[in-house]
Amino acid sequence: MSTDSLVAGTHFLPEADPVRVAHKALASNLSDLAAMGATPAWVSLALTMPEPDETWLAGFCQGFFALAEYYNVQLIGGDTTKGPLSLTLTVQGFVPQGKALTRCGAQSGDWIYVTGTLGDSAAGLALLLGQKSVDDAALAETLIERHYCAQPRILAGQALRGIASAALDISDGLVSDLGHILKRSGVAAVIEVDKLPLSEELRRFEPDAEKASQLALTSGEEYELCFTVPEVNRGAVETALAHCGVKATCVGQLRPGTGITLFNAGEAVDWQLQGYDHFAE
């Protein structure tokens, strides 16, 4: 089970396409189940709106039910009320007893992997907020689409049961979310930033390699999986993920101690980075 809230002006722009808002809301919740290796089954939705808006609701329903039907998730209830635009979803699912992926099973020596590519969501958000612009309209649209319409890694999470020692989804940035595994498991991490998987679109958006890597480390709302794997299971990762069409990249290793150390091309770097802070001003 997982619950997430999305608030207009914080998690999405008030004028955002409701189709995309719905996809993002449901995908973010399903991603939590993916990180547990679970199969999603039901969802409830609490919707708060300032005024009834049939056009907005039609778009929202289109995006919501398209993703729900794809993952065979049933809407079983919820609530509506008047107020500032916000959404709260609770998803429920199944996982075989004793097989759930958690954050507390990692050990020193385990390898750190991420699925997909990182950084595109932050790039899309920067474009939406007008913090940066690009001349290529197709590139801008691709990155904005990736910000709003990530695909939860449900099948990948299921495939990693019995292989990964710990897992979570990247919602607040790799450097922030990986810290939860480190804290719960009592280990430290070394990240090889030159091994981070970056899309061609991100490299075009940010040609400076260091800045692109920093985006990849801090980009929130990626909804890719970060997971750790013991040495004995490394050979099983590619085979396990092959059937669901998801690529995983090894980006570092766990060590004794605390915190995260960054290396770039074999040299330690002192980048003062942090992921998304829900209560930052």
Automatic annotation (TrEMBL):
| Start and end residues of each PurM-like N-terminal domain | 1-95
Q: Which Pfam families match?
A: AIRS, AIRS_C
Task: Summarize where Mg(2+) 5 binds, as residue positions.
Answer: 172
EC no. given is 2.7.4.16
- Molecular function (Gene Ontology), one example: magnesium ion binding
**Keyword set for this entry?**
ATP-binding, Kinase, Magnesium, Metal-binding, Nucleotide-binding, Thiamine biosynthesis, Transferase
Question: PurM-like C-terminal domain location, by residue?
Answer: 107-261
Question: Which pathway is this protein assigned to?
Answer: Cofactor biosynthesis; thiamine diphosphate biosynthesis; thiamine diphosphate from thiamine phosphate: step 1/1
Residues annotated for ATP binding in this entry:
78-79, 103, 171
Q: Which residues bind Mg(2+) 1?
A: 3-4, 79
**Highest taxon of source:** Bacteria
Q: Which residues bind substrate?
A: 11, 221, 276
Residues binding Mg(2+) 4 are 3, 32
Instruction: Give me the residues that bind Mg(2+) 2, please.
Output: 4, 32
Q: Which residues bind Mg(2+) 3?
A: 32, 169
Q: Which NCBIfam families is this protein grouped with? A: PRK05731.1-1, thiL
Q: Anything else of interest in the record?
A: Reaction mechanism of ThiL seems to utilize a direct, inline transfer of the gamma-phosphate of ATP to TMP rather than a phosphorylated enzyme intermediate.
Q: Provide the family line.
A: Belongs to the thiamine-monophosphate kinase family.
Q: What does this protein do?
A: Catalyzes the ATP-dependent phosphorylation of thiamine-monophosphate (TMP) to form thiamine-pyrophosphate (TPP), the active form of vitamin B1.
Q: What is this protein called?
A: Thiamine-monophosphate kinase
Q: Which organism is it from?
A: Photobacterium aphoticum
Q: What is the lineage of its organism?
A: Bacteria, Pseudomonadati, Pseudomonadota, Gammaproteobacteria, Vibrionales
